[in-house]
Fold this protein.
Amino acid sequence: MAQITLKSLAHSYSPNPSGPEDYAIREMEHVWHQGGAYALLGPSGCGKSTLLNIISGLLTPSDGQVLFDDRVMNELPPEERNIAQVFQFPVVYDTMTVYENLAFPLRNVGTPAAKIRERVAEVADVLDLTSLLKRKARNLTADEKQKVSMGRGLVRDDVSAILFDEPLTVIDPQLKWKLRRKLKEIHERFNITMIYVTHDQLEASTFADKIAVMYEGQVVQFGTPRELFETPAHTFVGYFIGSPGMNLMEVARTETGVRTGAVDLTLPPALRDAIHRSRSRNVKLGIRPEFVEVLTEPGEASYPVEIDNVQDLGTYRIVSFTFAGIPFRARLGEDRPLPARYAYVRFPEAWLNLYIDEFRVEVGQ
Amino acid sequence: MTSSVPTTPESVRQQAAEAAALRRKRARNVTTRWRRRTLLGLYLVFVILPIYWLLNLSFQTNSEILGSFSFWPQNFTVANYARIFTDANWYMGYVNSLAYVLMNMLISISVALPAAYAFSRFRFIGDKHLFFWLLTNLMAPPAVFLLPYFQLYYSVGLFDTHIAVALAHCLFNIPLAIWILEGFMSSVPKEVDETAYIDGYSFPRFFVTIFLPMIRSGIGVTLFFLFMFSWVELLLSRTLTATNAQPIASIMTRTSTASGIDWGTLAAAGVLTIIPGIVVVYFVRNHIAKGFALGRT
Amino acid sequence: MNKVYNNRAWFLILPMLLLVAFSAIIPLMTVVNYSVQDVFDANTRFFTGTEWFEVMLNDPALQAALLRQFAFSFTILAIEVPLGIGIALLMPKRGWQASAVLILITLPLLIPWNVVGSIWQLFTRGDIGLMGVGIRELGYAYNITRNPADAWATIILMDVWHWTPLIALLCYSGLRSIPDAYYQAARIDRASKWAVFRYIQLPKLTNVLVIGVLLRFMHSFMIYAEPFVLTGGGPGSSTTFLSQSLTTMAIGQQDLGPSAAFSLIYFLIILLVCWVFYTAIMNSQKDNTTQGGA
């Protein structure tokens, strides 16, 4: 049981990194608290698997430290870290039975046989593997194999954390849901820190209490699924989380206000001042499609637009339109009135996020 | 690497202990690595030493070979090689060997490819028995077929021709090629074939433009094995030839004459038989690592 | 893989079949034909039934050669298989060293078999050979033309030199097909090196080892050129193996009937041993049947 701290951690695969682009993990600080269920979410190649392998000790970071509680783990090999890891493709020992597979990590450290029997029985029960214990592991289906590899992590009562590296990739969709539930159940029962790497936001948000979103080797936001949705800390989070992703518009300062493309925006004073105060030329405003109001009549601070396309997705509709030369989308409940071709859109100020140099800036009201 | 500054006596002790453990572990890793290298190195020496000795003797005159024992040529000479390259009887041996080996490779691979495809993709009357029968040919000792081959090729007028040896080597090379290729072909999913047919490919076009490139390394490894077993074989090639198609291997027996054995020429001829092998390995070196498992892991 | 039932596949087989039939069936028929006849000349021959087979099976010289043959084959298997696995485990996995080691190790496989004999003759001779002179310098009267034990040891050493690379390359190739995740999982499960070998590497090697052992058994059982050149079968007949006995009988003495009978017995023994070995392996894996291996 431990708290995992990453202290000014960075990693590069090249021996002489010359710039930030040579780093798979850019310098970061991070704390995973004991007993949490975390997800590490990001597109492929963002460094999430690298980070996982650094925590488990399969990789040694080029800079910084990994601490379990207060102990520096950098130089300890995985076998001395008390970490379990479940890989993308199920790893089972083909020639062993399911029972032997589950007993393997315990036998390797010379656990007494009675204790092994007890632990294996308990874990097999949790994972619904009891009826398979005598079968050879090579004959199992992919999801059974994946359960066995999870089981090998769970039988050990000394593990500080279990790391999952996209464990459901090879599992059939209907079984994915069951296994995810199982994981959640296990987490509640054993109170183990779990870190779950995935590129699927749905998987991340159903599994985890807190999600770390990674982008280009950095954790750009660490928060609850709700925080990621409502106040994305980085334009990438806005784009990556939600379906469809956040609408983003680049804005420029004018003498008296703010404009995007050829459209002058009507903004609350605090927001306008914040934009004017910043020196950066990279200023963006973002709003989730869910919060864009689509009106049939012009209203206060509304803009006329032409609707390009409407997609009916059952309980809601996605309305696509072009605003100031940028494609925008709005998500409308099916009960809301929908204008035929010309409409007015409003961006409620509570849901407008300001991004300077891609990072979100809090605007005092 | 940044390191946290120890603040309490316990943490100082702990860090010191961890650093010591680390040093021990590194030392252990270094020892393991060196032990591995030494063992492998010893084996490589064992592999190279007899070949080195052959090379060493090939650059010495017979009087030096018999007169003094030395680890390298004292009077370096290429006379042994010169003798081989100036005597048509000698160098034609290499030409003959290469001729029948290449013919055999060509024949074997071109009939084995379609047959292996049939075995990997279709069921048909007698398929299992046929495959088993093919494999039994792999187990047939060449010595068994010596006499019948001699009579057969003599009666059809092929005795002492390259094609006779090439055909005789088909006995074990075709089954071997089919067996290796079948393994590689079975690891290509059948959906590939089906997609190609749906896209309107005819069988021959699909086979040549899509399927064969997919099992490239398999074909490379197969050719390697075909070369190997045809090039190294002595018994059949010696029996089926007299003068016109005599392989280098059997010409080498001429080095023993009434006046003793011509060691220098024997060594030089031996060195020259190794060279084609080196060329072949060099070409397939990148496929060996993967392909040697013959698609059956 | 589900195969399609289609008899037109025979057309794909046909060219191969004609060729192999020409080089296998016709000669084999000739052998069978001779084995049941006593041939004096082109016009005079008698049907003898199983007489030649009985003669051959009761021939003490051939029985001795058969025993020697088995002793030889099992000895070299016992040495080459573990050694080959060991070498494969030691071989570097990437970089130029991997290519270099690979090429060096493959070399002995591509040397004509009689040249292998010559190389070892040159290497082990007491007057000009590095090993021969070396051992004598150490004070042992090494002599492969006089001492049967020396001849045996040298032939076995030569075969180990010649063929261990085959096993090593097969295993190396098998090891390369193991995904990294297996090794990583084993580290996390705190498996010892031995456990990694026993439960990850060895199971993956089973298929290639079956191939390797079968190939090695077959070829060692047919060995001819190497001992013929190195020792000529001697001293006495201490290193005369089956192929050499057969060749002497068939070509040297022109005993057509007996040598044909001997040929068939020889062939059947190889078939039988391979079949027994293969079935034994397959049966031992039966309780965990998967998609067929070798």
Observations:
- Residues 13 and 273 of chain B are 66 Å apart (CA to CA).
- Residues 9-58 of chain B form one domain.
- The mean pLDDT of chain B is 82.
- The beta strands of chain B are 122-123, 256-257, 260-261.
